[in-house]
Design goal:
Number of domains: 1
Structural class: alpha+beta
Number of strands: 4
Protein name: IS110 family transposase
Strand content: 35-45%
Organism: Bradyrhizobium hipponense
Helix content: 10-25%
Length: about 70
């Protein structure tokens, strides 16, 4: 089943939530390093949708995560 993942982006971390089966589930923080974002990306599924906050470094986050979804 498709999940919708929301990410509130800050300078050093992103706060992540999952919307799945009609429920919102906090998923904690992800460091804003390429290594941490790639690790998070590996947990994503091709049918997932990721919604990220439009902020200064959102394009960099998008570039790292887009190959995983």
């Amino acid at each position: 089943m498709r999940r919708i993942i929301g990410m509130d982006i800050h300078r050093t971390f992103g706060e992540v939530v999952f919307w799945e089966d009609g429920r919102l589930r906090p998923a904690g923080r992800v460091d804003m390093t390429r290594t941490a974002l790639e690790g998070f990306g590996k947990s994503l599924q091709p049918i997932d949708e990721v919604v990220i906050e439009a902020t200064g470094n959102c394009m960099a986050v998008s570039r790292v995560l887009s190959p995983f979804v």
